[in-house]
## 1
Amino acid sequence: MTHYLISFPSGAMDATTDELPAVGEDAMAVVRAAQDAGVFVFAGGIDESTPPVRVAGDGTVTDDTYPQTAQIEGGYTVLDLPTRDDALAWAARFATACRCAQEVRAFGEGSETR
């Protein structure tokens, strides 16, 4: 099995503030379905109120981020699935729940958490 990252940037959501509670409920329903199916590994959203920092090998902390990752925010789900087609099917379920397209990426070998 392969771990797949299914994600979206927060700015991609096509939902009004009034719709956000329903979006959350719908997304949690998909998470529960993944848990029930035994494929759930992790899900969560980036806390956008906490700015990112970089930590060097010597422990130096810099209050910034790599320029190419400055826009990493939004929601993330990791599922352990047998095929890419399965990942695409779950991504479609999350896209419907979250009201936006989802990006799918496979983790490389050695990403097992067990």
## 2
Amino acid sequence: MFELSIAEARDALRARKISAAELTGAYLGAVETLNPELNAYITVTPDQALAQAQAADVALAKGEGGPLTGIPLAIKDLFATKGVRTTAASKILSPFVPPYESTVTANLLRDGAVFLGKANLDEFAMGSSNMTSAYGPVTNPWQRQGSDAKLVPGGSSGGSAAAVAARMALGATATDTGGSIRQPAAFCGIVGIKPTYGRCSRWGVVAFASSLDQAGPVARTVEDAAILLGSMSGFDSKDSTSANMPVPDFATAVKRGVKGLRIGVPKEYRMEGLDPIIDKLWQDGLAWLKAEGASVVDISLPHTKYGLATYYIVAPAEASSNLARYDGVRYGARVPGRDLIEMYENTRAEGFGVEVKRRIMIGTYVLSAGYYDAYYLKAQKIRALILKDFTDAFEKVDAILTPTAPSAAFGQGEKVEDPVTMYLNDVFTVTANLAGLPGLSVPAGLDHQGLPLGLQVLGRPFDEETVFAVGGAIERAAGFTALPTIRAGA
């Protein structure tokens, strides 16, 4: 049962070969067994999940099931879920129970999905390792050959990725601000897509950096990711940045093939010191696509070198503004003080973790009088140039192929003392967020220690179909079948 994909489970449920109650019960059992070791979930909701599964079985018996009826999912604890605690992995929101449902999760419920619980993440989605959660780090279910050292699952959507990889959910929601879907997907050997900015509503998603944040799914196959994105997407009048565009049949596009497509290779991504194994995988990916009838075109994205610096000005600036609302007055935790100012100070000092405080301080600094023009305004100008680079490139190519991350998963505790080294994990992913482009990570091979590595496909705005077509071709050619050490059914 644990080896079924979403597409296979959906077909088995419709054929009544398995019941939603059986499927959900198996996954709840996996969560109960594995979560103490992996810490992928902050909150588990077995009663709600079983009730939703029973309702799914009733609907399926009547032939009324939706696209996801009976499919058990994990929900990143950044999405507001009505009546279920939503913490953003922060102490400051530990008592918060939303009276409303985010648009993305409401869409999934509309289509019949079953929610197993809320997945762990870096606090307020700020991190690349899932080490900054107030509820403890998530452990990657993959292990190095000959070692039982605990590895990070990537971040910020590390809980979602670890849950899917370890067979503790069939799929999961995630969010991506600078790579937080794609990098954990690569580290955990699964598929993750950050859709075009505006494709999925941000309403009801706890904000980190509003002009960069975008919801998307993680799953085990490209087809599964396409099925989930189809349900998650759609126009929402409650989100002013939501795109009023039809939602294509993403799942059909996966099997479309790549014959005649032009695949771009940006010279700026061939960075000095790139791991030879990752470089070889990149070349293999290009060869697979050429064998399927695509052509490879060298392109230039000259402002790539400024991407990381630009991101780490824009994102903290927006975070410092968004997180100003957490003051202990209206919702969340409150730490009393002698007066209002001291209550603010005490609440924020105790409620926020070290990384969140660091980014608030950076953001407040770059927005302050005297520094706004020198940093924030200049970063916005560079962001426009990065978008122009991609716009020019997509006149010559249909998609772009790069590595997803500069390394495989690293150990818990490694890189933590040097935030700059940690930030470099996003070097291949941040430009897609700055430009608002869709980006897909597909597992394509293993490193010398037996850990998964991903390839990233970038596409034109709102052309997720081509991205899925390229991703599907890579998936078929790579034949990636490796499994994590820690998983249900092992």
## 3
Amino acid sequence: MNLGEKLKALRKSNNMTQKDLADRIGVSKSIISSYESGTRYPSYDVLVKMARIFHVSTDYLFGLEKKKVLDASELTDAEIEAIKRLITIFIENRKRR
């Protein structure tokens, strides 16, 4: 998956329109469209803004890292631990297949 495809998938999974994302970054909707189509690439500053908005690394956007990050800042420590246990269970179940 290239940068444009990742950007589009992240935007849609966050229920954002191209205009919503453009407004948050400070660019036009047509620029977001050209990022997603691969006809234009974001500057370093815009790339960092996108990574922060979607809570991913710039390496993830470039396809250098497969790891995704979840924002758990509003959860309690007990809730975070419960989620970690669930993730471990999912990974173990997937390995058994």
## 4
Amino acid sequence: MARFLIRTYGCQMNERDSELLGCLLRDRGHLPTESEEQADVILVNTCSVRDQAERKAVGKVGLFKRLKRQKPSLVIGIIGCMAQAHGQALLDELPHVDLVVGPDQLHDIPDLVEAALQGAAAVVATAVREVIPGDLSAHAPDQVFASVAVMRGCNQFCSYCIVPQTRGRERSRPLADIVAEVEQLATRGTREVLLLGQNITAYGVAEARHEGGAGAAHPRFADLLRAVHAVPGIVRLRFTSPHIRFMDADFVDCVCSLPKVCKAFHIPVQSGSDRILQLMHRGYTAADYLRVVEAIRGRLDRVAFSTDVIVGFPTETAEDFAATRELMRRVGFDMAYIFKYSPRRGTQAADRFPDDVSAEVKLQRNQLLLEDLEGSVAARNQARVGQCIEVLVEGPSRRNAARWQGRSDTSKVVIFDPVGTLAPGALVRVTVERATAHSLFGSIVP
């Protein structure tokens, strides 16, 4: 029996992989710990999408060299996307590391860990499998909110993105397996499910093409949403991340008409300039993006949109940036992840385009979009004052344990005073009394 610690960097898929890995290790009799000093095994689940995330992970693993000197039997592993991207080079740079394991080898990690504990030589395991490996249905107990991975990989090959190289091609899980996992979660008290996929709206598309026809018989993402929506006990359903190219009329009708589907949609746009979108290989125009947003907004009384944006992509001009700023103004996003472009080794953009937008200009454009967003969100939240909204309770507020918090179905954080017997997972109605750019505050309606 060993004590293990998993540190996670990156996306929600990495968080879910770490949760699953923790379950696999516990099933072998190993015990989790939060202490680096007490751990017998330390695994760092890494992201390779941005250079900053890689540097942070490498820096953290470098610090473990001291622990290794103090406890030579300590097993240190780098897993996830960075392991997939760099493989043996990580062992060369960090010789105190014992395991370098890619995302598709997740289910092999318990065996590799146990071999390393017995003194086996360092291992690099980064093979990509054509089908999603192993059972993905293990979850930590007593979760009101749970994530479910429905597919892996991406076939879009955006010029700035390394995901196809680190996560492989699109592979979808069988619909019946996903529904069975959600049903199991519901029986254990889960109330809200987040469906995960790098390109989730392409669910089933690759399999349909592989079957050699139009694929009408193969379930698509809208079919999956309807099936999960029908699971008793689940009251809210979210998903991330969709792609505009696959958000067709059936998808729009599905997300607008199914009441359990939360009316908060994270739809990456990356740029408002058609020229930059073409260089990014995004496969749509700004007008295409706006058409989908308007189709959804036209069907719903209340809806929130969030997005990802990259500023300073190679050759981005002031006019290109102005187009992004205008698109963001027209959509009126409730949240956005805004990133300064950084080249990623192995991507088309890094190989083909010079990183010719200065760091100063990137920072300035980043700050302008953040300022625009802050003002827009504050105004949109202020418009909620006086409204009564339904909130799924999460538990005590992280900043003030005397108050509780939850989320609306448009993903707004709502802070309120607890009334009577209240437990995470309850649905309550809250009258909004004041608002900031980050949260709504109110009182439970009796």
